[in-house]
Fold:
Amino acid sequence: MNGKKKKKKKKKKKKKKKKKKKKKKKKKKKKNKKKKKKKKKKKKKKKKKKKKKKKKKKRKKNKKKKKKNKIKKKKKKKKKRKKKKRL
Structure:
């Protein structure tokens, strides 16, 4: 009886130790690879989006302002010339 009990306890302890060591090694390798890949992809995408948005907004605003100013100046000049001729 004593010999059988000792054999069972030794087998259980050996199996548990082997499983824990294998799991720890696999987790460490996967985490390091994923972090490096994600950082490189995020930096490239942010730079491209910022440049495109700034250029489009500035061009649209400048064109609208120039057209409005030209129309106002032409109307004022025509009215002044007509008044001088009548006098």
